[in-house]
Amino acid sequence: MEQLIYAIKNIEKCSIMPDEIIIDGKFYKRNIPVHLKTKLKRTYTLCEILFYILNKRSTSAEYLRSCNKNNISPIDYTDRKLLNDEINSYCSFDESNSVLDEIESRYICNKDFSYIFDILKNLENKKEEKIVLIDTFRIIVPSSVKSLITVNNVKDFLEKSKFLESNLEDIFCSSSKCTVSIDGVQFDVYDDVKSFTSEDWKSVVAIFVDGSSWQFKNWKDKNLAEIFCNTAVFFVRYDNMEMASEIQGYNIENVVVDKKNKSLKKEDFERIRKDILKVVELKRRL
């Protein structure tokens, strides 16, 4: 109960993961029963109540579909008003446009239709499409000799906040792949995407561009707008480098390197890492 009260008052610090709940950085089991003061039809778990609160702006239909998709049992409709009242006793809970507003009580049937959720789950499991959890995140860098970020120097750039200008010999002799770590998260970095599968593309969280359209010549069957919309994209450049007109309309963050000192500001490095980790967190929740 203490965890629930704290979560209600700090709902922005709560996340529901596949195997656990995170509340302000602390991990809890999803199936912890919550014994409320109000007598409800059944005892709900911490996960079920938090999921209900996090979806309070959804319509009833949207909430039920979301419960089914995430394999979470919904709060019974007749319990929601009572639950809201108790939540309000701990913290103000805005009921406007919430899952309560879609059905009037006179239309509520007392029969148990929970079996419908079992049917929906079985149908979901029979779908041919397999759900693949992302276990490896990928970053793409240019293979161009004019790019300031390559496989050769990206590790120092992201891990040590160091910009080391690559020379031609290093670029031609280096591998087309390396591994970097940001705050404990591992990333595979590639400068060649020819062999990427559709699942590989789903795991791409960041792209470094060299400002040219040539970089994307092997991406002909890919929608750049869609890819760039779902990743963090950076153009690390000297102030005299320009971006090709073909890609100027996309959401690409310019990061300017001091050409004289060959350096970036500390906050630039931090912003890049933070933006990449934001995409990681979003893709983990898909």
Automatic annotation (TrEMBL):
Record-stated family: Belongs to the CDC73 family.
GO molecular function term, any single one: RNA polymerase II complex binding
Coiled-coil residue windows: none
GO CC entries: Cdc73/Paf1 complex
Domain Cell division control protein 73 C-terminal: 139-275
Compartments where located: Nucleus
Protein name: Putative RNA polymerase II protein
One biological process term in Gene Ontology: positive regulation of transcription elongation by RNA polymerase II
Main localisation: nucleus
Pfam families linked to this entry: CDC73_C
Keywords per UniProt: Nucleus, Transcription
